[in-house]
Amino acid sequence: DQQVKQNSPSLSVQEGRISILNCDYTNSMFDYFLWYKKYPAEGPTFLISISSIKDKNEDGRFTVFLNKSAKHLSLHIVPSQPGDSAVYFCAAYTDSNYQLIWGAGTKLIIKP
Amino acid sequence: DAGVIQSPRHEVTEMGQEVTLRCKPISGHDYLFWYRQTMMRGLELLIYFNNNVPIDDSGMPEDRFSAKMPNASFSTLKIQPSEPRDSAVYFCASSLGPGGYTFGSGTRLTVV
């Protein structure tokens, strides 16, 4: 049972444009959602998070939107830069269980 | 702080041999997680500790896998005997609480 799903294995975006990465979930009890970025041969690094009581969180070029009714969240990167090329993981957890539930990841490729 | 430190970075071993992966979490972090990443399954949580105590080991694939955390600054993941299907990248992560994990750079294990 995949509680967190990233249905796009890869995404290609032109440099300077907006990148939109999507994530769907099935467990309405999740309290927090996070996005991690992973470069080859490195561990994932934390990017941005959002609490389930919010619908938007912004940090520089990165904005995460949460639509609880649709059980959907998205990560917007504006403008996209070559260094943003990486695999992006969506993850979620509940306050009662510290185990992160991970999506399968989306490989973002920024074209010059 | 040097971050989460894993050793070795790469390990190549013969089937049937014992393999020990090591992790030094960030000082002060009271949660430690062991993950495995494969192409087929993505990121899988194997086991996590809180204050050196194993909390959930349901992700450990079988009895050949064992993990210990003898103190707050050190953890090991042991595979005995190793098999080719254990080949993967193994990540250690630590955190102060839920969500904001810091990952190590991983150990790439190849069992031939």
Map the helices and strands.
The complex is a heterodimer of chains A (112) and B (112).
Chain A: E1 4-5, E2 10-14, E3 19-25, E4 32-38, E5 45-51, E6 56-59, E7 62-67, E8 72-77, E9 86-94, E10 97-102, E11 106-111
Parallel strand pairs in A: 2-11
Antiparallel strand pairs in A: 1-3, 3-8, 4-5, 4-9, 6-7, 7-8, 9-10, 9-11
Chain B: E1 5-7, E2 10-13, E3 19-24, E4 31-38, E5 42-50, E6 53-56, E7 65-71, E8 74-79, E9 88-95, E10 102-103, E11 107-111
Parallel strand pairs in B: 2-11
Antiparallel strand pairs in B: 1-3, 3-8, 4-5, 4-9, 5-6, 7-8, 9-10, 9-11
Tell me the structural class of chain A: mainly beta
User: Quick check: average pLDDT of chain B?
Assistant: 92
In terms of DSSP E residues, the strand content of chain A is over 45%
Helicity level of chain B, as a percent range? under 10%
* DSSP strand count of chain A: 11
Number of helices of chain B: 0
Output the helix-strand order of chain B: EEEEEEEEEEE
Which two chains have the most extensive interface, and how many residues on each? A-B, 19 and 21 residues
Mean of pLDDT of chain A = 93
Shape of chain B: globular
Oligomer: heterodimer
State the low-pLDDT regions of chain A, or none. Answer: none
For the sheet with most strands of chain B, the description reads: 7 strands, mixed
- Number of contiguous helices of chain A: 0
C-alpha end-to-end distance of chain B: 36 Å
Radius of gyration of chain B (CA) equals 13 Å
Contiguous low-pLDDT stretches of chain B (5 residues minimum) are none
Proportion of residues in helical segments of chain A: under 10%
Q: SSE order of chain A, as H and E?
A: EEEEEEEEEEE
